[in-house]
Write a structure and sequence with these properties.
The structure holds two protein chains of two kinds. By secondary structure, chain A is an alpha+beta fold. Chain A has helices at 5-15, 52-58, 74-79, and strands at 23-24, 38-39, 119-121, 127-129, 137-144. Chain A is built from three helices and five strands. The two termini of chain A are 36 Å apart. Chain B contains three helices and four strands. Chain B is globular and about 40 Å long. Classes of the chains: A alpha+beta, B alpha+beta. Strand 5 (137-144) of chain A pairs antiparallel with strand 3 of chain B, so a sheet runs across the interface.
């Protein structure tokens, strides 16, 4: 699961100009001593397409294009809404987003309940967690193929 | 149909064309038949959905409206059920 969609969105916004509280190279102003992140404009040490400023904000490794070693680059995982720090979470082949917020609790199986989480195989041959469809209205439509 | 609401389908097959529990191949084939949609077509050959929702597999199709927080809004069966589920979703969204 991605740490936070808001964090992700903020990271993208900051990526354009390294804003927020991230210190820039040459204007450190004691940031290193205070343990705050520092980065330089538009630098991308690992060439993964994610600026070092954004990598610092996300906690990914600016010197590794695949911080969690799962075979998808950090940029690919950000693009497919997968956690670039969770090696067990991969981009879905069909393009679904990993939207499970990580704090859901099932309350039952009746109307008004938060449904249980389970995984089903999709048309791309992957197991997909139902809670990854969090965040949008859905019609769950069940039928037979015959 | 314009609903003024962002929503999507999740299709689930409990049986394939052969009448046996649905498999990955069934949902791949079904997705082809319905034009390779941009929503998931899933195989539920182990009846997980009927254990997690009011749907029973005794009739088909069946459908439930699911809220963004994964709450089950309401469930219906039959081909008219879709409109009723959609109405409930819109009401839930305040539309």
């Amino acid at each position: 699961m991605f740490p936070s969609t808001l964090t992700f969105a903020a990271a993208l916004l900051l990526g354009a100009g390294c804003g927020g509280e991230i210190e820039k190279e040459g204007s450190d102003d004691g940031a290193a001593e205070r343990g705050e992140p520092s980065c330089s404009d538009d630098s991308d040490l690992d060439g993964d397409g994610v600026d070092d400023c954004v990598e610092e904000l996300l906690g990914t490794d600016p010197e590794s294009e695949d911080s969690d070693g799962d075979g998808f680059t950090d940029a690919e995982e950000i693009d497919c809404v997968s956690d670039p720090l969770d090696g067990d979470e991969l981009c879905y082949a069909c393009g679904w987003e990993h939207n499970d917020p990580g704090n859901l609790e099932s309350t039952g199986s009746s109307t008004g309940d938060v449904m249980n989480n389970f995984a089903l195989v999709d048309q791309c041959g992957e197991m997909v967690d139902m809670w990854d469809f969090y965040g949008e209205y859905h019609v769950l439509y069940m039928t037979a193929a015959w | 149909m314009e609903t003024g609401l962002d929503f999507s389908f999740i299709f689930a097959l409990y049986e394939g064309a052969s009448g046996y529990p649905a498999t990955e191949n069934d949902c791949d084939s079904y997705a082809d038949i319905i034009g390779n949609p941009d929503f998931p077509v899933m195989a539920d050959g182990e009846n997980l959905i009927s254990g997690a929702t009011p749907m029973t597999q005794e009739r088909h199709p069946e459908m439930c409206g699911i809220a963004p927080d994964m709450t089950i809004i309401s469930c219906y069966y039959g081909h008219g059920g879709y409109d009723r589920a959609l109405d409930d979703i819109k009401a839930h969204a305040g539309l």
